[in-house]
Amino acid sequence: MTLTDSCPNCLEPAIEPVAERHRGPHVVHGYRCPRCRHQWATARLIAAYRNTTRKAA
Ligand SMILES: [Zn+2]
């Protein structure tokens, strides 16, 4: 899954993550804006994105 984000600095939309890290129940995406080079990270709860995951057989 690819979760894009908007730059909090210059509001450039649809930026794709350059790094993904799992930290407990969260997944942390690192972003770098191609326009202003601002860097930030967004942590999301993995459980909130499980809708498309199939149940284990
Ligand atoms: Zn930016």
CATH class: Mainly Beta
What ranges have pLDDT less than 50 throughout 5 or more consecutive residues? none
- Mean of all residue-level pLDDT scores: 89
Record field, number of beta strands: 3
Bound molecules: zinc ion
Largest sheet: 3 strands, antiparallel
Task: Give the CA-CA distance, first to last residue.
Answer: 21 Å
Q: Give helix and strand order, one letter per element, not per position.
A: EEE
CATH architecture title: Single Sheet
Give the gist of this structure.
This protein has 57 residues and is mostly beta strands. 0% of the residues lie in helices and 33% in strands. The chain is elongated.
Q: Main traits of this protein?
A:
single chain, 57 residues, mainly beta, three-stranded antiparallel sheet, 0% helix
Notes on the protein architecture:
There is one protein chain. The chain is mostly beta strands. The protein has one domain: N-terminal domain of TfIIb. Helix content is 0%, strand content 33%. The chain is built from no helices and 3 strands. The chain has strands spanning 19-23, 26-32, 39-45. It has a 3-stranded antiparallel sheet with strand order 1-2-3, with no helix packed on it. Strand 1 (19-23) and strand 2 form a beta hairpin. The chain is elongated and about 40 Å long. The model has no long low-confidence stretch (mean pLDDT 89). The protein binds zinc ion. Zinc ion binds at residues 7, 9-10, 12, 33, 35-36, 38.
